[in-house]
Amino acid sequence: QRLDRENPLNKDMVLTVMALDGGGRASFCTVRVVLADENDNAPRFRAAEYRMSIKANVAKGSLVTQIQATDLDAGSNGRITYSLYSEARLSLVDVLEVEPDSGWMMTKSAVDHLQGTILSFFVKATDCGSPPKHSLVSAFIHVVPPDSFVPSFRQPQYSFTIPEDTAE
After folding, report:
1. What is d(CA 25, CA 57) in angstroms, rounded to the nearest whole number?
2. Which residues belong to any copy of the Cadherin domain (predicted)?
3. Domains, the chain, ordered by start
4. Which of the residues 44, 61, 114, 164 could staple to 143 if both were Cys, CB 3.0 to 4.6 A apart?
5. What whole-number distance in Å separates Cα of residue 142 and Cα of residue 53?
6. Residue 149: pLDDT above 70?
7. How many Å apart are CA 45 and CA 135, to the nearest integer?
8. 3-state secondary structure of 77
9. Which pLDDT score is estimated for 8?
10. d(CA 162, CA 62)
């Protein structure tokens, strides 16, 4: 079976080595094996896609959202940097930026001229391994009028039960 550092069964391997001298005497030694990390995992985003709305009058430098990914590898193989990627004609680099180390996305300039537009792009998460591995996630930002109400939830998750005999 192939050894993999990320497999919990391979986390802490302890071997007992026995040496025999041929005359019936034996000596024992305990050896702890620590597996070195191989860059065998690409970053994984916490969400399948990111959808958000921002008001057209949002100030330059405003935080939009934080994109987050994880990498099972250790050390530099698991350290992630973020960047924007788009195939669209609209140049996102003039409007948005992402902080490479934290994944915080923010406005780089005014977006009022984009009111009614849905910005569609990808965020790329790249690990610092050699060779580096990366993943892409879709992101959509709807630029809404300044006076519009953008719905939001106060909690990340809600749970409730509805009896099956409840009328419509």
Report:
1. 83
2. 3-45, 46-153
3. 44-144 (2.60.40.60)
4. 114
5. 5
6. no
7. 8
8. helix
9. 67
10. 40
Token pair 């025999």 in the structure block, residue: 20
CB 139 within 8 A of CB 68: no
Q: 63-66 and 69-70 as β-strands: parallel, antiparallel, unpaired?
A: unpaired
Cα–Cα distance between 159 and 127 in angstroms, integer? Answer: 35
Is the distance from CB of 72 to CB of 34 less than 8 angstroms?
Answer: no
d(CA 102, CA 105): 9
Q: How confident is the model at residue 165 (pLDDT cuts 50, 70, 90)?
A: confident
Q: CA-to-CA distance for 3 and 136, rounded, in angstroms?
A: 28
Which residues does 114 contact at the CB level (< 8 Å), separation at least 6?
A: 56, 95, 143
DSSP character string of 102-166: T-EEEESS--GGGTT-EEEEEEEEEE-SSS--EEEEEEEEEEE-TTS-----SSS-------TT-
Q: What is the pLDDT of residues 41-99, one digit of tens each?
A: 999 999 999 999 999 999 999 999 999 999 999 999 999 999 998 776 556 778 999 99
Q: Which two tokens stand for residue 45?
A: 């985003």
Residue 102, phi then psi, degrees to nearest 5: -100, -20
